[in-house]
Amino acid sequence: MTFRKILIFQTAFLGDLILTSPLIKSVKKSFPEADVSLVVRKGFKSVFAKSPYLSEIIEFDKKGILRFASFLKSKNFDLVISPHRSHRTSLILFLSGIKRRIGFDKSGFAFLYTDIVKHRMEKGIHEIDRNLSLLTPLKNYPLKVDNEPELPISSEEAEKTVKKFNLEKPFIVLAPGSVWKTKAWLPENFAKVGDYFYKQGFQIVIVGSAKDIPYCQATEESMKNKAKNLCSKTTLREFLSIIKSASLVISNDSSPVHAAVSFNTPVVEIYGSTVPDFGFFPYRNGTYVEPPVELPCRPCGIHGKKECPEKHFKCMKSITPEKVITAAESLI
Fold this sequence. Notes:
By secondary structure, the chain is an alpha/beta fold. It has twelve helices and twelve strands.
């Protein structure tokens, strides 16, 4: 049986969506005659706009399970692959009537999938490779696996964004924000790193979403030198374009890391409450920094926490600006 219409379902956070790009590429390269569609959470449709591997991008606001399942049913997909592991996703895909459904064994309602793949969270296994393991049930087909992350931002589009915001090359991007407080390094330390590289001749650009404004503002205000604070001032594609054009990105364990990797932009990732063993370390062209001492409370959760459970926040407080600067200089 050949597949005519294939769906990939990933409605998680931005970083998770970016890390789906090798799976998207591999599916299209393995089944070049098929129409490949992608479901993303509302607001993320532009991430893969202009992708040569996708025929359609569908937004889902995570409301109206029956309505959305009915919509997918009308599309007549004959295969769906889902890196997303929520109960909601499993139920929607079951109700959509798609004949073949591939998902992870750790998904909620995993029994609703026709093909179940072991979700391996072990040391050294990256999220990209976990996602690509979803192709295992299709091993009888002539698969062409491409594990290189890629985002459809052209050099022309990136340069247009650089000019729009009057950015001066070379520049370094600081991404001090995080959805989870225990994944955010101290803004005053980001500022010290920014001041150091400003003196080395780099413009400092601060990026983030509207939710990151407190972190970005605190970083800017703590710097002794001038920085360009573009937090919440860019579109999603402009944010990606800035990452693409940077000489270096310094970020918490968050989406800017994976965007940088997709563009081969050097990146330093800072780990606090989470750990590289979860599989979200830089896949290439980057390095990471961890606390200098082993902490029995670390990790405190796969996503971090809103507050430090131990009330001391040693994981982030123990990481010095000097350590991050050393890591950054090893890349540039």
